[in-house]
Predict the structure of 3-demethoxyubiquinol 3-hydroxylase.
Amino acid sequence: MDTLLIAADSALRTLFARPRAGEPSPARSLPAVDLSVEQRRLSSALMRVNHVGEVCAQGLYMAQSCVTRDPQLRSDLLAAAREETDHLAWTRERLDALGSRPSLLNPLWFAGAFAIGLVAARVSDQASLGFVVETERQVSAHLQGHLRRLPEADLPSRAIVDRMQRDEERHAAQAQAAGALPLPPPARWLMKAAAKVMTTTAHYI
């Protein structure tokens, strides 16, 4: 029951409250930049997609922590979720600075990620960790693509994305070390297809 209450609280905080980071944003120490209308529009769209990714991370980690019976794994998943909360707060701060908004479909994204996390975790802890590894690897590659697309002048957004990518790679390595099982190719393909739908939609909505 306690775990379910924690998950419900996470959903409410993720979707309806302004997230609070435990660590200052990497962009906070950087000066404001003057972007053109086109540059601002592109940065806003990419950071909205990244914010959606962090909403999904909250749903995924919370679902997995609800199902596992391993106290150490639950602790590790909740610790990762707290780190992802920093990313959630940083991307939201950057959206505000750009004069933009989060995705209107965030409740849908959270619910979908939570459902997928439940399914993966019910198979086994090792399968659940394998899902984390594949997710974080795909997110890392996705963030690398954003670093190539973000305007060179948008140093604050670039600083946030760079830090996020390094954190995601670390999460993948930790899950791998904890005994993750590799996902079969069809599962990896489906994950990529679902991510494509999400990122394309969140770019605009």
